[in-house]
Amino acid sequence: MHEFSVAPLVEVGDSETLTDAVYARSLSEPDTTVLAVRERDGWRDVGYGELAGTVLAVARGLLAEGVRAGDRVVVLGPTSLDWVVADLAVLSVGAVTVPVYPTASAEQVRAVLADAEPVACFADPNALPRLDDALGTELVWRLGESFAELASSGEAVCADEVGNRRARVRADDAATIVYTSGTTGEPKGCVLTHRNILAASGNVVALLPELFGWRGRQPTTLLFLPLAHVYGRVVLYGCLGAATRTGLVGNAADLVSELPAFRPTFLVGVPYVLEKIRKAVPDESAVPALLGGRLTHMICGGASLDASTLRFFTRAGLTVLGAYGLTETASTATMSAPTANLPGAAGRPVPGTTIAIGDDGEILVRGPQVSPGYWPDHGTGQEWVPTGDLGVLQDGYLRITGRRKEIIVTSGGKNVAPSLLEDRLRLHPLVANCMVVGEGRPYVSALVTVDPVALRNWAGTAEVDPADPRLLAEIATAVDEANALVSRAESIRRFRVVAGDFTVERGQLTPSLRLRRMVIEKDFAAEIEQLYAS
């Protein structure tokens, strides 16, 4: 087994918790801006003092309502100040946050509630009409709107009691249970401790002084990742601890329009977002102005970034840092740094982490950020976490080569990594998404969805028949470019443009926008059969 380790830059003490930074800085620097929220007339800054005061008031309310240490409390809603307050308040009383995506179906919510058995729920008011029956817990508070009510009931609780609760929380206590179903299967509740998240966020911040110590001034970023995803939470807690002015964006679709005015110094995202920016601004010379003129670095995690997209942003004067992780590693396993950035790689192990490649090529992770297990039968830690991903180590740099479970084996016995073809196909401006198929088939094919905005710009209308010869010819050029990356036996022989797009709401994508292949194969079974009909 080939492995590579990096020594820690930050070690978490046994009594450290995720709420420490906010409360400590509220005393030492109450007026320092830490969050920013979009209001009708612009961005409103929130200092450590205001944030801690609101959190303390809500935490007292939770105690008044009987929330105890170890209890689970659901937080369901988009990225917002209210989400952050609810999360910090839950953690302040020693309880455990159970995040749920606002796009979750009623069935998914019921499954989480049945497994986690929460005592209460904070829910986005906009989601309540759709999910009211599914929530069903006795205590359902409306995110933001119920804070005043909780603060009022909490007046009967001494403020020192929250401090007493916080003092009893230990680093190895559960902080959150993140439900992840991946691309198949029933949701599993991954337990992450205060230590897990602090080790992940603290070591990344220490690794990247170019981002978090921006030219001697306060760094700024826009957080548009969903806080129901651990990636967003780790970014949040890293920024809270590093006094980064963090603008909260509840809808990723609003990101591009907010960038010029907010003027972030760095961004953290996923390849899908960077590819959307590239499609929106085909001329790299226009990128700096679009991004606000101060942005120097972008962290890109979640999947491999195509080499041409990387070159595009490099020519625009930006440094793109690859990263890799999964829920079970608090979203951090490897990270590039400005001084150690190999194009196309996902970086080296985050400080404190060991990466290994098993005999079968699977990536294994060990470190203080590794989850102790799944709810409710979690233990005290795992030696190695199998990721399900395939990769290679080169001088300590990790390259992702595919997913074990996603490898397609054709009837001729050829192993095909679909993500390589899919990532290249998605670079075409007209391609919104795609999925390669061919398990047990004589050749590889693909389902392709079209971006309606790009289609309108290209054809003058979004109402184009999926079988239109001009459209098929244009998509064929993208297929040819993807096929140039692989052997003929691995290449896409046929494709089908399908109406609509793959969506989270229809269960075809995970909340982190990964393909749920089994669902898509079922939904488009007839179209797939036609690809092999002759």
UniProtKB/TrEMBL annotation:
The keyword Lipid metabolism applies. SUPFAM superfamilies: Acetyl-CoA synthetase-like. PROSITE patterns: AMP_BINDING. It holds the Pfam family AMP-binding_C_3. Residues 29-375 form the AMP-dependent synthetase/ligase domain. GO terms for molecular function: long-chain fatty acid-CoA ligase activity. This is Acyl-CoA synthetase. It comes from Saccharomonospora amisosensis.
